[in-house]
Amino acid sequence: MTNQRIGIIDVGSNTVRLVIFEIDNYYSMIELQNIKTPARLVQYLDDENHMSQEGIDVLIQIMKSFREISVRYKIDALLPVATQAIRQAKNADEIVQQITAATDIEMRILTEKEEAYFGNYAVRHTMHYPDGLSVDIGGASTELTLFKNKEVLHSHSFPFGVVTLKRKFFGGKEHNDPKAIKKAQKFVEEQFKTLDWVPKAKVPLIGVGGSARNIGEIHQRQIHYPIAGIHGYEMNREELETVFELLKNTTLEEKEDLDGLSEDRRDIIIPAGIVFTTLYDTVKADCFALSNRGLREGIVMDYLNREFNNPFSLHDLQKQTIERTARQYGIRPLGSRQRVAIADKLFTVLNNEVPLTQDPYLKKLMRFGAYLYFLGSYIEDDSESQHTFYILSNSNLHGFNHKDRVRLALLASFKNKSLFNQYSSDFLGWFSDEELSTLMYLGGIIKFSEALNDSHVNIVRDIHLEPSENKEEYDLYVTYTGDVLSERYRSNKQKKHIERILDKSVTVHFTDEPASQEIQQ
Length: 521
Description:
- The protein is an alpha/beta fold.
- The chain folds into 3 domains: 4-110, ATPase, nucleotide binding domain (Nucleotidyltransferase, domain 5); 113-296, 2-Layer Sandwich (Nucleotidyltransferase, domain 5), CATH 3.30.420; 330-512, Hypothetical protein af1432 (Orthogonal Bundle), CATH 1.10.3210.
- The chain contains 20 helices and 14 strands.
- The chain has a 6-stranded mixed β-sheet, with helices on both faces.
């Protein structure tokens, strides 16, 4: 596949948005453009759900502008969809016909089930949770989808959203009126409990869409969160309630200066908070996780999976992400695979002498870190460690939560103890001292593996470790084939990382005994 540009127009009840993605040869989705217009189409619906011509004209003007932009970007496919505001309009067919006649854009009205499906599709294909309940609240609808083991079990669309809740309970009242909040909470709770599978869920609650992202971004600003990105960010019930209380106790004028809150959501963020906190309690969730991938990404990913033989898998998300990241930063797979193989062997021989970890997941992260080691050299060789740590800790890596992003960044950027301590100092309380020590040891294994792989020509065949006769030091035997001049020099400079693990001196011996095959990954 050659690079493709896909545009998606999302006609929602609150906003209309054009997002243009560029899809590279490895199916990485790069967002080239994201234009949002707060149309609030639901306000143009009368009591009989008939959209006025004024509302239709507003939408036509937006669609004309978006079509012109799409043409300028030379997109290969345009996917225009509409959700609740158009779906519930009695004159929906007329709206679609007028748009097609005026703009030549054939808009697809998603059913409630389709809207819930696509939003959840992105969640399941980009987040590590095997089980969860996704909630996507728009202007006039709220979609819930329950999945277990990555398979959808139940979904439902409620005919209320942030705009309709505001109109129903806060009309003519202050945006934070206590009685209105209480009535809205009771109404929302009663609605959720009409579905017997919601109170029984007891899974992570996953927030999708702009309102959910705003809640997470406000919290991040309040606690001076040390890394970027909202995808995979987790909040517990107390943290969610803290943000909700802040919103309730802040005037509309004060909300203008509230970091993390979009200007066009100032007057509708409290209805969103009502939905999230009430649903959290109803579900008995153990966390509120934020997804930066929702309806639009789900539609594009579904399109690509249908057109190009399923490039996005529900399983092995982390491996898929590592491979795409490596390609993005020009990492050569041959050298990376050999470095991983050497790190595996080193881990085994060292773990036999000094138990490093019983956690297989940490070993898995070590292998990922070895594969992406010093990817920051793509930017600059002289500060490759610093760039590596910043890139990995601040990238939305599909399948990884934020703690795992930092763990991976510490491993893939490991250069020395001093820099490791410098990087980890911003994350006090995230990891225990024992885990930080383990991560430093694993980083040292990767660093030494790179030294044994310095020429990147696959010359290391086997590794074994033996205590000396006096038991006061160790001999590390490396079987190789070919010229190891570079590896001999580098390994003797970097053996201190192995000595730190063993707490004893190590002598490295190179033995030229060609084997039938190299260390296998």
